[in-house]
C-alpha cells in the first residue's frame, strides 16, 4: 500500500479508501474481497517504524529502481511485439539518465499524451 501511496500521491486515509473501492488496488496488495484492508493508522505506524530504522528510503529506492529497470526492458519488448504483429507503436518514450529524449520523441509523446488524456479521463470518471 505504501507503493500505491507513493505512485499516486495518496494519504494514508486515501489509500485505505482506494484499496477498499478498487479491485485493481486490492489485487495489487494481495487482498481479496473477504480480507480486511489495513486501516490508515497501521500504514502510518509501518511507515514510521521503517523511517525510524532508516529503511523506508532504501526500500523505496530499491523497488523504484527495479521497476524502472523492468519498465525500460518492458517497453522495448512491447515495441518489438507490436512491430512483429504489424501494429502501430503508441507507447510513450521515457528519458533515462544521461540520455534525453530527441525532439521527435518529445513531439510524439505530446501527441500520444493528448489521446491518453481523453481515454483516461473517460475511464477515470467511471470509478
TrEMBL record:
The lineage of its organism: Bacteria, Pseudomonadati, Bacteroidota, Sphingobacteriia, Sphingobacteriales. InterPro entries: Transposase_InsH_N. Residues 2-48 form the Transposase InsH N-terminal domain. It comes from Daejeonella rubra. It comes from the Bacteria. This is Transposase domain.
Amino acid at each position: 500500500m505504501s507503493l500505491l501511496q507513493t505512485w499516486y500521491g495518496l494519504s494514508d486515509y486515501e489509500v485505505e479508501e482506494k484499496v477498499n473501492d478498487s479491485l485493481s488496488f486490492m489485487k495489487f496488495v494481495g487482498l481479496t474481497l473477504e480480507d480486511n484492508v489495513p486501516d490508515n493508522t497501521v500504514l502510518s505506524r509501518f511507515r514510521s517504524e521503517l523511517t525510524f530504522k532508516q529503511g523506508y528510503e532504501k526500500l523505496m529506492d530499491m523497488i523504484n529502481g527495479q521497476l524502472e529497470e523492468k519498465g525500460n526492458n518492458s517497453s522495448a519488448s512491447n515495441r518489438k511485439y507490436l512491430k512483429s504483429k504489424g501494429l502501430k507503436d503508441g507507447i510513450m518514450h521515457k528519458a533515462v539518465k544521461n540520455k534525453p529524449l530527441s525532439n521527435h520523441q518529445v513531439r510524439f509523446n505530446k501527441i500520444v499524451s493528448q489521446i491518453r488524456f481523453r481515454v483516461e479521463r473517460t475511464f477515470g470518471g467511471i470509478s
